[in-house]
Design brief:
The protein is mostly helical. 75% of the residues lie in helices and 0% in strands.
């Protein structure tokens, strides 16, 4: 009878392990890992808001993607707080200083690099 219980315990353990969600690619990331991605994407979003450019919510989309990729809740909260800090710091900057072709070009270039870096981080094994 004991061997039946032991067999059941092993079976339950295997079933539970098999059903456990695998950690996502962002599970072990830190703020240092994502800051070079978060910052340019947040600036892109701020520029979009100030200049009434649609579809530039890159920072918000990144935070949602970070969460979906399995990042720790504390990291997601830190990322959201940092994005909010950047947006707050830029709130008083007048649009005429932000909405220039040069700044738009630079922001897009930095955002493209950030998207590439994020794709590389997501592709690495946890």
């Amino acid at each position: 009878m004991d061997h039946v219980r032991a067999g059941c315990a092993v079976l339950v353990g295997v079933l539970l392990t098999g059903c456990s969600p695998q950690p996502g690619p962002a599970a072990k990331l830190t703020m240092a890992d994502i800051a070079p991605i978060l910052t340019p994407l947040t600036y892109r979003e701020v520029l979009g808001e100030k200049c009434n450019e649609p579809n530039m919510a890159a920072g918000t989309a990144f935070i949602a993607d970070l969460k979906a990729a399995g990042a720790a809740d504390t990291l997601v909260r830190q990322a959201a707080a940092e994005a909010d800090r950047i947006a707050t710091a830029e709130r008083e900057t007048l649009p005429e200083y932000v909405c220039t072709a040069e700044l738009y070009e630079s922001t897009e270039k930095n955002a493209a690099s950030a998207h590439k870096a994020w794709a590389e981080l997501r592709a690495r094994k946890p």
